[in-house]
Amino acid sequence: MSHDMSEENLPESHGSAGEVADHGNPFADPGLPAHEPRRTDIDERAAKRAERQVSLMFLVSMVATVGFIVSYVAIDPDKIVYIFPLGHVSALNFALGLTLGVALFMIGAGAVHWARTLMSDVEIPAERHPIEADDEVRADVIGQFRTGAAESGFGRRKMIRNTLIGSMALVPLSGVVLLRDLGPLPEKKLAETGWKKATEAQPLELVNMSTMLPLKPEDIVVGSLTFAMPKGMTTHDEDFQQQIAKDALMLVRIAPEDIKDEKSKGLGFEGILAYSKICTHVGCPISLYEQQTHHALCPCHQSTFDLADGARVIFGPAGHPLPQLKITTDEKGFLVATGDFAEPVGPSFWERAR
Predict the structure, then answer these.
(1) Alpha-helix residue ranges (DSSP H) falling in the chain
(2) pTM for this model (two decimals)
């Protein structure tokens, strides 16, 4: 037995929204389903309740951010607590993670709840258009934006607006607080070196970094370059690398008549000048010296300093001269420092005078 399935015998289709109505075009646009209003659209009490719920979420976010900051300040970083089922964990890390997670989650949950209950949910179809919009399309987009802004209730629902602004303003403070973990505060560490122990009454000997012996003027000949550090430091010190990065000296001996800067000459002894070995650009150690020109060259970025003229910068990116240390000799004839550098050594920073 056979069945005739020709087009003439196909049953007539009575399509409606959501059904294909044209057998000749199976991909016909079914259209949009009828819009069903939400409870908050027709019941103002339900809308007010949703508004309070959204505001509460934003308020919880603000409280959690404050809790993050309080936890960071108040909880000992070494404190360990038992949290089921995590086991023994850092109390600080747990508190920071919990409060920051709640703060971010509540902002997101509040925004989603706001959109699903109070913002307009009417679907608006739009035809595809070329990438470059014409004036009519631009005007239509601006109009839709203004309509959406009005229907969102952002300006009308002040409770949501104010709590959202508060939570969004507070939550970045979590990141600002964490900047404290970049390291200890510099305090006066950048402005002082190991030479601060030296005074006129109790000078501090200069020690040759190669021989680890005290230096006398006759140890330094004209045209030579010698590196020195304060007496009392050793390479076995736990913080030696950190300290030598500020204390390292570069000693040169220049014929007194060749020294151009009178102030620099007064800080030296019989033509021996003591400058910081740390470049004032990014802090590289200076190690190259031209005895004919009295120029010291930083090997990192070619900053060049004239040691006969107060270590003035004559080339390169360095921003200021090398700081100079005042030296003289003690009763034993050894070279000694009588004070710290007059200004911080190394690269510039915001507290620096120049």
Answers:
(1) 39-42, 44-74, 91-117, 135-152, 158-170, 172-178, 240-247, 262-267
(2) 0.53
Check: CB of residue 250 under 8 Å from CB of residue 276: yes
Phi/psi at 135 (5° precision): -60, -35
DSSP class of residue 43 equals -
Cβ-based neighbours of 284, under 8 Å, separated by 6 or more: 278, 298, 299, 300, 301
- Which amino acid, one-letter code, is at 41? D
3-state SS class at 234: coil
Under a CB-based contact definition with an 8 Å cutoff, are residues 277 and 249 in contact?
Answer: yes
Unique residue bearing structure tokens 């920071």: 96
Longest dimension (CA), the chain: 130
Q: Residue 228: which H helix or E strand, with range?
A: strand 225-230
| Measured torsion, CA atoms of residues 42, 46, 51, 52, in degrees rounded to the nearest 10 | 170
Residues 8-52 have pLDDT tens digits of 444 444 444 444 445 667 777 777 788 888 999 899 999 999 999
Evaluate the omega torsion of the peptide bond into residue 85 and state whether it is cis, within 30 degrees of 0: yes
- For 353, the token pair is 């005078």
